[in-house]
Amino acid sequence: MANDLAHQINNPLQGLTNTLFLAQQGGAASARYIEQATEELAEVTELVRRLLCLNRDAVTAESDENAA
Prior knowledge:
The chain is an all-alpha fold. The chain has one domain. Helix content is 90%, strand content 0%. α1 runs antiparallel to α2 (30-67). The protein is elongated, with a radius of gyration of 18 Å. The model has no long low-confidence stretch (mean pLDDT 86).
């Protein structure tokens, strides 16, 4: 599971790194590269948000079990 999550996070991070590099080169496509980087950052943000929710849900479930 950790390996899968690492790949899910790493792929958009690599894309983000590449598109920011291309945007730094300037040119007419720079605005499109910035837009693409923003989308990839949103993807990573969503993955991390889901991971945080999983942890919170697990802690809540464990607390509920201990209370019962």
